From TrEMBL:
Keywords annotated in UniProt: Cell outer membrane, Membrane, Receptor, Signal, TonB box, Transmembrane, Transmembrane beta strand, Transport
Signal peptide range in chain numbering: 1-25
Protein location: Cell outer membrane
Domain named TonB-dependent receptor-like beta-barrel: residues: 406-869
Family annotation (InterPro entries): Beta-barrel_TonB (IPR000531), Beta-barrel_TonB_sf (IPR036942), CarboxyPept-like_regulatory (IPR008969), Plug_dom (IPR012910), Plug_dom_sf (IPR037066), TonB-dep_rcpt-like (IPR039426)
Chief location of this protein within or outside the cell: membrane
Membrane-topology annotation of the record: Multi-pass membrane protein
Domain TonB-dependent receptor plug: 125-243
UniProt cross-references to Gene3D superfamilies, sorted A to Z: Carboxypeptidase-like, regulatory domain, TonB-dependent receptor, beta-barrel domain, TonB-dependent receptor, plug domain
Keyword Transmembrane: yes
Protein name (Swiss-Prot/TrEMBL): TonB-dependent receptor
Length: 923
């Protein structure tokens, strides 16, 4: 018999259960208040129903109201500077939440560098990892990913180039002073395809093929993780200097729109950029996050012609003939300016500076749970970007009669290189549980293409007055498809081990590189002679790719990896990884890594790693060939770039390219001090053997070179004056140290301050050369394979030091961001030792950025600021007044013969101060 009291208790419990179930079964309105760690109201906190786009934000008093929420939902509370909290409702309709302060953003959980099922704080990892949040990405007015990273991460460096053909539109980017092709870029942990462009002009990373990160809209990025350590054993080829993993937004709710406009202090370089991000849920089972960007950036002109009169155009040196009086010089200036005015010459037509660019980009990131019971999820991410641009080449003077046609351009002309970059990518995959393992099957496809159209030009070799003034010059295209299957599982208390994370998998990749020829007129050698000398063939500024240059080459790669990570004890974390790869075009490679972290005291630890790595030669380096006009030691030359299968390359004794091999050592210290300060110090050494470089130019003036070129003529084109090719020519050592310190302070109930100091110091030296018997046995060819100019570019062409100091202050709705970056000195040397008097060291400079912002109302924020607040410029380039370098014809020289800004080896560009305003709208 059931006791009556028991019956009453049961009825009450049933009633309570039914009431709760009813609350859970229907959608409710949840209200509440959010406080900060000190108990003060916290406005602007995002409140989101997890897995959906249903969200709101707190008002000025920290209060919120969210409608149409299931009683079983979990709410996510997030705000800048606070730890995100997830609160299950369990049927409740009112909440009071207190968000704890995020001690430091450098303490964020990262996934790059480890295949553990759970991420670790970056001060708890075995290798150094920088974490760059979405807030940092949009704090200032750098609007491209490479520029953003340059000013935030000291070990990363990228500068916009000018007068460098395709490199004007694809910024070369480096990590730890190594090459653009020695850092691996990932998106959501998946390998990103490289650019189609190979850098063959005098820029940092000459001879390399990098990844165009600027095709990814910043609005799509949740965070960027920069792994500063060798990781070829974990991720494969290219990860010698480290890995950059771009994590796309996956938890956005509602709409976020941003618009930025600005210009330089010289009223050029106008920028208008609009970004948008839209996120919404898929019935509590997934999300879709869509981002887009439009950017229009006009050119920057730093030729000096806006303030100085044109220099005498009658000499190739750009200087006045000797013996002229001051009055005669004035008369010549007046005559030239009158001639310019008469013929409608535009001073802006001889500009020197960054290119015009216009970018349209979009990205999607999405996931959907197919079978909740087994955790089976489908995911997708992908993007399309189109960038068009226009950049000036070098001015063709009317006195350079083999390169111009006075009947078309009586005053000479400036050719324009117009590029179109089309980039597309897609990642599709499935992940779930298989026999207790987290399994991930994915396929990643990417394609990058660069098309050239040359305008305001001509083919001087065509009969007088008959040349078109624009040409299609051809296209480069690179595509990559990667299929990957990986398994990961964490075991607890495996024998004597506290934990063991096991990861293994395989990958199959196919690469393809194509060159398409341009219009016939863009490369053909016509019948025109100037005296007895054939006029220059092809479109001036950029000669088109010839049918003999056209190609379609592919290769495949298969690899497997094993990664073991274990907390051997409470104090010791050890990671061991190995990878084996086989390429269809050059063979196999095995690499390994061992890394460890030991906790000496609470908050103090040592970490270090030892690894060997490799980088496969890119298809572009393996097969690229073309002819181009370049300046070397003050001479204008037609330079031929040949691939390793070419008879000319073989005549120099150069064999097929093989992989670069590296050995990486690192040792570091991590510390947390006074709960608010984190400090990491990491020293490293990277030895690279058989490093692939683009050789120096072997000149036809050398009898041996002339014999080789004569024996291997190029039908239908001018005799070339120089030849260059790719070779595993040098062995290098890079040593350096990274230091990062961060402190977050709460100055009052509504006041917060974050201070960051970060620095990188590095030095790269060429330790030895790998030549050939042909070159070594000809004394006149020695020291030419990799001359002093190329060595200086490799060793000193990038800053050997960079220091970043920043302060981010917030008070209620106001914010102030102040940052100053010291770019270390760089050096240039001339290829000819007899011209060493024009070698130059460009001094270190500080560049300061300032942004002031206000959250005007709940949905609208305003920012104004200045990049390069003090209008700092790099040193100007020393100019030899006795050479015929054409840039002198439109740049005045001072008393020390310093004229234009350097094209390649400058630390931070020469745009000067940039003023901007920004509007942010969220809904």
């Amino acid at each position: 018999m059931i006791h009556p009291t028991t019956t009453r208790i049961g009825l009450v419990a049933l009633l309570l259960w039914l009431t709760t179930a009813a609350a859970w079964a229907q959608n409710i309105t949840v209200t509440g208040r959010v406080l900060d760690a000190t108990g003060q109201s916290q406005p602007g906190v995002t409140v989101l129903e997890q897995g959906t786009s249903n969200g709101t934000s707190t008002d000025g008093d920290g209060r919120f109201s969210l409608n149409n929420v299931p009683g079983t939902a979990t709410l996510v509370f997030s705000a800048v500077g606070s730890l995100t909290q997830q609160i299950p409702l369990n049927g409740r309709t009112t909440l009071e939440i207190r968000l704890a302060a995020n001690q430091t953003e450098l303490n964020e959980v990262v996934v790059t560098g480890s295949r553990a099922t759970e991420g670790r704080s970056n001060i708890l990892t075995t290798s150094p990892v920088d974490v760059i949040s979405a807030r940092e990405i949009k704090a200032y007015a750098q609007t491209d990913v490479t520029q953003i990273l340059t000013y935030i991460a000291p070990s990363f460096q990228s500068t916009r180039q000018t007068v460098t053909d395709g490199t004007d539109f694809v910024d070369p980017a480096t990590l730890r002073g190594l090459g653009p092709d020695q850092v691996l870029v990932l998106v959501n942990g998946k390998r990103r395809h490289t650019s189609a462009l190979v850098n063959i002009n005098g820029t940092p990373g000459r001879g390399s093929v990098g990844t165009d990160m600027n095709v990814i809209p910043p609005a799509a990025i949740k965070r960027i993780e920069v792994l500063r350590d060798g990781a070829a054993a974990q991720y494969g080829s290219d990860a010698i200097a480290g890995v950059i993993n771009i994590q796309l937004k996956d938890d956005t709710t509602g709409i976020s729109v941003s618009s930025t406009a600005g210009q330089t202090a010289k009223s050029d370089g106008q920028l208008f950029q609009a970004d948008a991000n839209l996120g919404f849920g898929l019935g509590h089972r997934g999300f879709v996050d869509v981002s887009g960007q439009f950017s229009n950036r006009s050119y920057v002109d730093r030729s000096g012609l806006d303030t100085a009169p044109l220099i005498y155009l009658g000499t190739t040196s750009g200087n006045y003939p000797a013996g002229l009086t001051d009055q005669q010089k004035i008369d010549l200036k007046a005559r030239d300016n009158a001639l310019v005015t008469q013929n409608g010459f535009n001073r802006r037509d001889i500009r020197v500076g960054s290119a015009d660019t216009r970018t349209y980009g979009s990205f999607v990131n999405a996931a959907y749970t197919l079978a909740p019971s087994i955790g089976l999820e489908a995911y997708f991410s992908g993007g399309l970007t189109r960038r068009t641009g226009s950049s000036g080449a070098l001015y063709r003077l009317p006195t350079q009669v083999t390169q111009t046609d006075a009947s078309i351009y009586p005053n000479g002309f400036l050719p324009f290189i117009n590029s179109t970059v089309n980039d597309g990518s897609a990642i599709v995959g499935l992940r779930g549980k298989v026999f207790g393992f987290a399994a991930d099957l994915s396929n990643t496809y990417g394609r990058n293409a660069l098309k050239y159209n040359i305008t305001n030009t001509l083919n001087a070799s065509l009969p007088v007055g008959t040349s078109p003034t624009s040409f299609y010059a051809g296209e480069l295209a690179f595509q990559q498809n990667t299929t990957n299957l990986g398994f990961t599982r964490k075991f607890i208390e495996v024998g004597p081990l506290a934990t063991l994370n096991l990861a293994f998998g395989g990958e199959f990749r196919v690469d393809n590189f194509q060159i398409s020829a341009g219009d016939e007129g863009s490369y053909i050698l016509g019948p025109r002679l100037v005296g007895t000398t054939p006029a220059a063939a092809g479109s001036q500024g950029f000669a088109g790719y010839r049918p003999s240059d056209a190609l379609n080459q592919s290769r495949n790669n298969v690899s497997g990896y094993l990664d073991l990570e274990s907390d051997l004890t409470d104090k010791l974390l050890v990671d061991v990884a190995g990878r084996a790869e086989r390429y269809s075009d050059f063979g196999s490679n095995v690499s390994g890594k061992v890394a460890a972290r030991y906790s000496i005291l609470d908050g103090l630890a040592l970490r270090g790693a030892l690894s060997n790595g490799f980088r496969a030669p890119s298809l572009q380096q393996r097969y690229f060939t073309n002819s181009s006009t370049q300046f070397t030691s003050g001479e204008l030359r037609e330079v031929l770039t040949t691939n390793n299968d070419d008879a000319i390359t073989k005549a120099f004794g150069i064999g097929s390219l093989k992989q670069e091999k590296s050995t990486n050592y690192s040792l570091g210290l991590t510390a947390r001090l006074f709960k608010t300060i984190t400090l990491t110090v990491d020293a490293y050494q990277i030895d690279i053997r058989d490093r692939i470089v683009l050789s120096s130019q072997f000149s036809r003036s050398n009898a041996v070179v002339a014999a080789i070129l004569t024996a291997n003529p190029r039908p239908g084109q001018n005799p070339v004056q120089g030849v260059q090719f790719f070779a595993n020519a040098v062995n290098t050592r890079t040593q350096g140290i990274d230091i990062v310190a961060n402190e977050r302070l709460t100055l009052g109930p509504d006041s917060r301050l974050t201070l960051t100091a970060a620095a990188n110091f590095n030095e790269t030296t060429v330790r030895s050369f790998n030549s050939s018997a042909t070159i070594d046995n000809n004394p006149s060819l020695q020291n030419t394979l990799f001359d002093r100019a190329q060595r200086a570019r490799l060793e000193n062409g990038q800053p050997r030091s960079k220091i970043n100091l920043s302060a981010d202050y917030g008070y209620k709705i106001f914010g102030l961001n102040l940052r100053t970056v010291r770019f270390g000195e760089v050096q240039t040397k001339d290829a000819d030792p007899t011209r060493s008097f024009i070698d130059q060291t460009f001094a270190a400079k500080w560049v300061t950025d300032l942004t002031i912002s206000a959250q005007v109302i709940k949905n609208i924020g305003l920012s104004v600021g200045v990049n390069n607040l003090f209008n700092v410029y790099p040193d100007r380039l020393y100019q030899d007044p006795n050479n015929n370098e054409q840039s002198l014809t439109y740049t005045t020289l001072d008393a020390t013969n310093r004229g234009r800004f350097p094209y390649g080896s400058n630390q931070f560009g020469f745009n000067g101060a940039f003023y901007f305003g920004r509007v942010n709208f969220t809904l």
